[in-house]
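Handout, section B. The chain below has 419 residues.
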Amino acid sequence: MKTSKLTVGLVFLTFFVISFLTNIMGPLIPDIINSYHLSLGMVGFLPFSFFAAYGVMSTSAGVLLEKYREKKVMAFSFLIAAVGSLLFGLFPYYAMALVSLFLIGIGMAALQVAINPLLRVSGGEEHFAFNSVMAQLFFGLASFLSPLVYSYLVTNIKHDRTNANEFLEMLSKLVPNTLNWVSLYWIFALTALTMAVIILLFKFPKVELEEDEKAGTWSVYKDLLKNKTVLLFFFGTFAYVGTEQGIANWMSKFLSDYHQYSPQTIGAEAVAYFWGLLTAGCILGLLLLKFLDSRKVLILFATGAIISLTLALFGTAQVSLYAFPLSGFALSVMWSVVFSLALNSLKNNHGAFSGILCTGIVGGAVMSLLIGKLGDIIGLRYAMTVLYGTLGYILSIGFWAKPLVNNAIINVKKTKENQ
């Protein structure tokens, strides 16, 4: 039991680190633009590099997992993320940032495939649902903290005088005078290396993959891609991640350009609260799913997201500052609801189908880049209106989805009659 609890703890820690390394791009974008004098389109290639790696690895990681098992895949994933972070820390140039983010993305994508079966076995199948929610809470906590860590570093590292503590003093010697934000990548490298060592020293339980966790053969993928339902839900996950990253990545830049909020403090805090409210919304979503059909919940939250986005883009400075984080709350249940509706709409080959759905994470690459390119032409405000298209598609799923199995709900009326 002790080993099981330790393994569950390791998985929670892994979720935390994945999020810490993954969801920091939004606060960094204004600094990156200023440091390298980039257009919005050029900076859009940075999240593109990261999420393109998810598109490459989401299906192939399943094959690697079956062949090399959890320990090797997880250790390799953290090592490659550490290499990517270290490369950019040593050579902080735009071209190296593209390579660095792609390598980090490769590692994070492989990790996400490996840790869910490990969580199921180490925590027990009967506790899997609860532990999955707890893992998402750890994921959300890291997403909330990483922009605050960034803000602390860029405002406290001093090059012209002694720093407040030895850690900041060391970082000040590692980063160029005008690139304090690069210090974050030294922290990423140290964190990833530490995780790799922990995993190599850790004794893993034996994990037998269930049928819906196996990758499937290439012929299975070919057959699935001919299925209209598979393609429709692939675009569902594509639209969700595209929306999430489109808001998170460009929020700070928007608040800086249109409302003159400091990206290093107010902008970073807004991104932190976006992720914090996204996590909090998951808790409300879990409660609502006990009483409402998941399609109705999806329609409700998608409508809320459209309203929040409208207020964020066209409201006053203060309204925009609050509406952007609130959009995170509205997005909170979308991934889990779309994913569960998708799997419940197909009788078999759930493992391969999951791989295809996770490949939809590449939507984060495409939409972030599209917004950047359009921003150079029509301005960031109107460029971000493309997210009405992705939110509209998510909203439509609530109307056309026909799952073979509906989510179990508590019938309050029936319960009262039985009392």
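Note. The chain is about 80% helix and 0% strand. Compare this with the example in section A.
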